[in-house]
Amino acid sequence: xxxxxxxxxxxxxxxxxxxxxxxxxxxxxxxxxxxxxxxxxxxxxxxxxxxxxxxxxxxxxxxxxxxxxxxxxxxxxxxxxxxxxxxxxxxxxxxxxxxxxxxxxxxxxxxxxxxxxxxxxxxxxxxxxxxxxxxxxxxxxxxxxxxxxxxxxxxxxxxxxxxxxxxxxxxxxxxxxxxxxxxxxxxxxxxxxxxxxxxxxxxxxxxxxxxxxxxxxxxxxxxxxxxxxxxxxxxxxxxxxxxxxxxxxxxxxxxxxxxxxxxxxxxxxxxxxxxxxxxxxxxxxxxxxxxxxxxxxxxxxxxxxxxxxxxxxxxxxxxxxxxxxxxxxxxxxxxxxxxxxxxxxxxxxxxxxxxxxxxxxxxxxxxxxxxxxxxxxxxxxxxxxxxxxxxxxxxxxxxxxxxxxxxxxxxxxxxxxxxxxxxxxxxxxxxxxxxxxxxxxxxxxxxxx
Length: 449
Fold this sequence. Notes:
Shape: globular
Number of strands: 15
CATH class of the largest domain: Alpha Beta
Oligomer: single chain
Helix content: 25-40%
Mean pLDDT: 93
Low-confidence stretches: none
Number of domains: 2
Radius of gyration: 22 Å
Strand order of the largest sheet: 2-3-1-4-5-6-7-8-9
CATH topology of the largest domain: UDP-N-acetylmuramoyl-L-alanine:D-glutamate ligase
């Protein structure tokens, strides 16, 4: 066992001791799509921003062996800072033996699964009282879920994610996506209470309707936010979330409202969710662009299912004559042997949806272009560009007032930077001085890459 593994094991054991001793309620989330936005919606519903509530939500991507203990201790990743490591280990040591208390009542933990055994390990640290499973993949897309490249099959990935439901504590509740058959089937894996959400008839929290609300402008019609109608136990409510778009937000909200039902949260608090919910950087945000255009910023990460969903969201917006739809896409990672096929499928969908321009970047750009051209997109409407700064400049010259531009790609890492599609959004923003507040990966370490 290496030093890093030893440190993670010690921190995990200390975090587990805190959770058990203080009897913290654990709300855990997993899935291949929508975890972060669902986590955000859950935190907003519970008002995790109010210190007196005693609620802590996973920050950043702290969803692994180190991230979960960091969330429990309320610390940032120490990286290579020796002093920060010493401070973290001191707190963990004090917590292990009862000399440190979290002061919390509830933990909202995102649990990631990069390899076999991850969820089982994390649920031993933090046994879930409520387990939320978002989605594995869209059934109608035929798409491979993110991280599938690390598993022998999709079934193996589903088996991994299902460990969250299997680990429910006695008297707990599973909250499952009724529209994903793989997730919905997990209801058979527990004898505890099950609530469902989705568009399917019979869902406990049913998404009856979603639409992007549009406003008339001199340049045409611009999206201003997501309007959704929810049916729950003979009650129908319509909620509006400004500055975001897309069905992914609707599913996150529905999952949060199902949690509200599980916890008997008041109707007033649940209907106030749009006020408390803050759009997350890089996740289906609507941003004003140069030349009086609109940007759809979905640059945080990408999987085949989420990319297809964003393309359909773009195509479904009711624009005025003369307005144009542009998609700027980069590679989707961790797809294993299916990578070429999945990227061709995305290009084919862009053609089928009738987009006016498809700009593709990264190592699978040609596969996306081939898919678009093979399905009828005109060569002059498909542009392959090696890197994102050039793509931003090309689109800047091409667009005109009223155009809608979507940008999406996988994030990569600080070591393998990927296409960093947020650079396109920054190039096209009407007010780039707000990039630090609106965009992902704006920290100093990322900007040096």
